[in-house]
Design brief:
By secondary structure, the chain is an alpha+beta fold. The protein is 29% helix and 34% strand. The protein has ten helices and 20 strands. Helix 2 packs across helix 4 and helix 8 packs across helix 9. It is globular, with a radius of gyration of 23 Å. The termini are far apart.
Length: 361
């Protein structure tokens, strides 16, 4: 039989996956099963999973499943070796991959060097990549595992995804929401200097239950700021790493170096979430305006994660309205005076805590 196998190579190269093994990861408390034949792909998955905040393993949760295989060095179906050059790809720039989607399906393509298909409803994905691409651990980590995992998580029941910055202060999580260049990260820096703790600057997931709200986030341990932040905090410029992003000029701050002890990777469960819709004002004073749940939902729509499935959009809006009805939101027009900004937000937290106490009397 082995002789026949050698003389009749499988057109689909199934033998390339015979040595595959399965490893389990924990993503926001959800189990992830990775099946692969490549230690390089294991490393790429582990690198991305490390960016998520940690949470206890959810009981009786169906696992997410990703099967990603590294092709053999020679592609027999074309009679040539893979020759793609990925070394020059900028990780902070636009993605070198093509993304498509329809309904519950998404597709990622690296041309002749790889492709991945994911069924978001079934929580499964399968793909194959060339050795030249598998060797680029950081690239695969961010643009393949990152994309697949974020989409799988968005489809998880009860999880609501926000593009925001999350900070923790005692029993309150502040959710700073706003469009690009709205002042979220500079506001976060101000609060870090005042003793607040950063959870994440990027994607924030909220999960409501009867006891409160759990806040899950990625990536943990870093903050990205625009050059204008150094007008207020010039001492941080030397510790910032310049990024060439599609969003324009930005800098990464490693919180372990800049604010040791002022960040957490643990997903907090709190009784109070404080959504703040941030914008930059043209005056010294910070101005805070309460929003109804309807007004907040209208502002929230651009910051919510969903895809081109209208029924799912309805589900997302329902979850968002429920959260904003339970945790009232405010419009935060940030003033130039930093101490006054901290005082305004601290006062808002204190007044909310007092209101919660009076409601329980």
């Amino acid at each position: 039989m082995e002789v026949l196998r050698q003389r009749m190579p499988d057109f689909w190269q199934r033998r390339a996956t015979e040595g595959a093994t399965t490893q389990q990861f924990n993503v926001f408390g959800y189990p992830l099963l990775l099946t692969t034949n490549s230690q390089r792909l294991v490393a790429a998955c582990a690198a991305w999973v490390a960016k998520f905040s940690t949470a206890p393993l959810a009981a009786a949760e169906a696992p997410m499943q990703i099967s990603l295989f590294e092709r053999q060095a020679a592609d027999r179906s074309r009679g040539r070796a893979e020759t793609a050059e990925w070394d020059a790809v900028n990780l902070e720039g636009e993605s070198p991959f093509t993304y498509d989607g329809h309904g519950d399906w998404i597709a990622i393509s690296a041309g002749r060097d790889g492709h991945v298909l994911a069924d978001l409803r079934k929580q499964e994905a399968i793909g194959f990549v060339a050795p030249s691409l598998a060797a680029q651990t950081a690239l695969v980590s961010k643009f393949i595992f990152g994309t697949v995992l974020y989409n799988l998580l968005t489809r998880r029941a009860g999880l609501l995804q926000w593009h925001a910055v999350a900070l923790v202060h005692e029993d309150t999580v502040l959710l700073l929401i706003g469009h690009d260049n709205s002042g979220k990260s500079t506001t976060a820096l101000t609060l870090l200097h005042a003793g607040f703790t950063l959870l994440a600057d990027g994607l924030i997931y909220t999960r409501l239950d009867a006891a409160g709200v759990e806040v899950l986030a990625s990536p943990v341990g870093e903050l990205r700021v625009r050059p204008g932040a150094f007008d207020f905090f010039p001492h941080l410029r030397q510790q910032a790493v310049a990024l060439n992003t599609w969003e324009g000029e930005k800098y990464r701050l490693d919180l372990a170096q800049v604010f040791p002890g002022r960040y957490t990777s643990a997903s907090p469960r709190v009784t109070r979430l404080l959504p703040l819709f941030v914008s930059v004002g043209q005056r010294l004073a910070t101005h805070i305006t309460p929003l109804t749940a309807g007004q907040a939902l209208e502002r929230a729509i651009p910051a919510l994660g969903w895809w081109d499935s209208l029924p799912f959009l309805e589900t997302v809006l329902h979850h968002a309205h429920t959260l904003l009805a339970r945790h009232p939101a405010f419009a935060l027009e940030v003033g130039w005076e930093r101490d006054a900004l901290v005082a305004s937000i601290s006062g808002l937290i204190t007044s909310g805590a007092q209101a919660d106490s009076e409601n329980h009397v």
